[in-house]
Amino acid sequence: MLAAATLAVFGAGLVLATSTARAQSGRAEADAGFDPIPASVARELRSVGIAPSSIAIVVAALDGGALDLKHNASAPMNPASTMKLLTTYAALELLGPTFQWRTEALASAPIRKGRLEGDLYLRGSGDPSLVIERFWILARRLRGVGLRQISGDLVLDKSAFDAQVGRDASLDGNQLRPYNVEPDALLVNFKTVSFEFIPDPAAAVAHVIATPTLAGMHLTQTVPLAAGSCGDWHEKLRADFADPWAPAFTGHFPQECGAQTWHVSLLDHTTFVAAAFRPLWESAGGAWSGHAREGRTPAAARLLLTQESPPLSEIVRDINKFSNNVMARQLFLALGTGGVEPGASAVRSSHAVSDWLQREGLQMPELVLENGCGLSRHERISAGSLARLLQHAFAGPRMPEFIASLPIAGLDGTMKNRAAAAGSAYIKTGLLDGVRAVAGYVLAASGHRYVVVAIVNHNEAEASTGALDALLDWVQQQG
């Protein structure tokens, strides 16, 4: 859960629409404004003190089913991560499911006997999937084209993004958290180090492994192992990240925890790329004595190789299944330039999405886009607009890739541990302080399919998960 000020409760006075069809067992409670919310959902909301004015719900049949429910459908709501549905579907439509990002390696000087007599340029396009394994492949491929020694610098060309991209303040000021990593045209491994703690009871320690290996980082190899419950093992480690080059863990690790991983963002983008590249290059048999810096690739530079990302159909699956904010922001920035022009910005992407929605007849007058991932206090969309988007996607040619990207209730992604409509619901979740949301598709017991959207904006929204799950169950059972 993000540590930030909670949203104010949305006031009363929002338009309520009546349901045109209800199953007898799911009759809504009409008291205290809960009509037409299903009784099971209303009970859950009432039990945690959330007023009906703080939730928006749409249930819409896709194939002639009987349920048709609208409650606060046109109210602008903060959708949290369900906003990723708009970004990923727009991307599948505007860029296509086979779209790939390109990271290029270029040289402006000759290579003689394996020695590059000048700088090596890496030109990024905003690839959200350049994890350390793929960065290792890039290094090995550079050795494969005959390059062994780089006499100059590693120059990072980030012109694919506008210079102001990534300079906004984070949502909660916690720059160590990976979800706050800002976009970058040469994003490597999400700019994140993963510290893995592996218990060794025989030695009474937990081994500490950092991935990736970063040149210049000195790390404590073990921490004492201790008895006791796992609890907040992060706190028990007493981590000190004041010096990013010498992370220290001065506490202990609870043996009952088993192996655990802590993901942390410690360095700026350019420093991280340099520290990650050097050991990869040296392990591949290369030599490099220079430094990393940002710069533009000369027009006369010669292309050495191109590293392509997986296709967009795979990228959107990673984004939606695991609600990856960093990848979603990278993808959002590609929408304004088609992923190929320089100068990508959130403003250009917002215009591109708005233009596309207009062309498709998906008017959303209440829509507010900031970063396209939902990690925002400003983004807004209504449950009705989100439902119409899902209906449009279901009827369109990108339906298979889009639905396959959604978490399956009770089985995977962010819905893995939720039993509501298990195996029958493909649902994107939204979670932010003051916000809980679900949006996606439910296959009812009758065989009918439904779009379901529910968004809670309330300072006790964390307690509304039971109500959202009750809605999914109600659709699955009564639809």
Please give the structural blueprint.
Blueprint: H1 39-47, E1 55-61, E2 68-71, H2 84-94, E3 102-107, E4 111-112, E5 115-116, E6 120-123, H3 132-144, E7 149-150, E8 154-157, E9 193-200, E10 205-211, E11 222-226, H4 233-237, E12 239-240, E13 248-249, E14 253-254, E15 260-264, H5 269-283, E16 287-288, E17 292-294, E18 302-308, H6 312-322, H7 325-334, H8 346-359, H9 383-395, H10 399-404, E19 425-432, E20 435-443, E21 449-457, H11 465-478
Parallel strand pairs: 5-7, 6-8, 7-16, 8-17, 11-14
Antiparallel strand pairs: 1-2, 1-21, 3-6, 3-18, 4-5, 9-10, 9-15, 10-11, 12-13, 19-20, 20-21
Helix pairs in contact: 1-11, 2-6, 2-7, 3-5
User: What percent of residues are in strands?
Assistant: 15-25%
User: For this structure, what is the CATH class of the largest domain?
Assistant: Alpha Beta
Strand arrangement across the biggest beta sheet: 2-1-21-20-19
Low-confidence stretches: 1-30
Q: Level of helix content?
A: 25-40%
> Number of DSSP strands?
21
Largest sheet: 5 strands, antiparallel
Which structural category do the helix and sheet elements fall into?
Answer: alpha+beta
CATH level-four homologous superfamily name of the largest domain:
DD-peptidase/beta-lactamase superfamily
Number of domains: 3
Q: Which architecture name of the largest domain does CATH use?
A: 3-Layer(aba) Sandwich
Distance between the termini: 32 Å
What's the gyration radius in Å?
Answer: 25 Å
Mean pLDDT: 92
User: What is the tally of helical segments?
Assistant: 11
Question: What is the CATH topology descriptor of the largest domain?
Answer: Beta-lactamase
Shape assignment: globular
